Amino acid sequence: MTSPTVRRRRLSAELRRRRVQAGMTLSDVADVLEWSPAKLGHIETGIRKWPSVMEVSALLKLYGVTGGQREAILTMVRESRLRPWWTEYEDVLSSAYVGNEAGAVAIDTYAGLLVPDLLQVPEYTAMLARSQRRGERGVERMVAAFLKRQDALERDNMERYHAILEEDALRRMSATPSLLHTQLRRLIEVGTGHGNVVLRLLPTSAGLHAGSAGPFTVLEFDEGESSLAFVEATHGGAIVESENGVAACQEVWRRLDETALGPDATITTLRRLSLLT
Fold first, then answer.
1. 4-39 burial, b for 16+ CB within 10 Å, e for fewer?
2. What's this model's pTM, rounded to 2 decimal places?
3. What's the whole-number average pLDDT of the chain?
4. What pLDDT was estimated at residue 255?
5. Contacts of 11 by beta carbon, 8 Å cutoff, 6+ apart
6. Which of 70, 114, 126, 146 is found 20 to 30 A from 77 (Cα to Cα)?
7. pLDDT, tens digit, for every residue of 124-180?
8. Same domain, 264 and 187
């Protein structure tokens, strides 16, 4: 079963498709069911996150959806209402992003001056949490949440995890050689031990580049689901759903990919840095 977050988005799209197929407007449906058009609009856009089985059953009856198709959609409703693990860590991570990350089959990420989340060792995550002025309880929770997220690399349906890593992100650990060494060993281990993981290093000598505007991630899904992007920001970042917005992120990614070292050269460089620490 995929992420409940992805299920909710697919459910919204399916209900919208069924309404259009039935030749009805939002107002038509609202009049028949005595709902407000806003309520139905929220369900179809995913703003209302958890439509009930009873509400969706009423919609399907109105749209003439029966039999196996009806049961498949109602199963999607039940799965979309499950409470996933990441909702317990909303104080230390973006539940909206992680919910989509958990359902992605391909991830392309550029983390700027940080080591990408799914590649961090616990000591690095803890240092990052402290730099954000989190108390020790918050540090522990952030480390635990990031470790759970890293299970994504082991998922059977994870087709590709591709990370572009700034050399400067590593140099910022030079004041703590033991941490740098541990993080480098983790990067080498993941980069050589996972067939679906590709790491590419962006050398400092590249100068200003296409990613200078900041970190972002592009997520791809199965079953014909549209790709999403997540753009980092001081306030926590934002999910980009528009086709043009996602395409713009993908174009920046392609340009970064052209600038970065190849996978083999990246691992060679990481090994050399590890020997020097």
1. bbbbbbbbbbbbbebbeeeebebeebbeeeebeeeb
2. 0.85
3. 92
4. 96
5. 51, 56, 73, 76, 77, 80
6. 146
7. 999 999 999 999 999 999 999 999 999 999 999 999 999 999 999 999 999 999 999
8. yes
- Tokens for 103? 């359902």
Q: Cα(253)–Cα(14) distance, rounded to whole angstroms?
A: 30
Strand (E) or helix (H) holding 233: none
Count, residues in the chain = 277
In a domain, 224, yes or no: yes
H-run or E-run covering 88: none
The domain of 97 spans: 90-276
Question: Among residues 61, 80, 99, which one ends one of the domains?
Answer: 80
Domain co-membership, 212 together with 268: yes
Confidence of residue 229 (pLDDT cuts 50, 70, 90): very high
Residue 85: inside a domain: no
- pLDDT of 225 strictly over 90: no
Query: Residue 110: helix, strand or coil by DSSP?
Result: strand
- The residue type of 268 is T
H helix intervals, the chain = 4-21, 26-33, 37-45, 53-63, 67-80, 95-101, 122-131, 136-149, 167-171, 177-193, 243-259, 263-276
Residue 248 burial (C-beta neighbours within 10 Å; 0-12, 13-18, 19+): middle
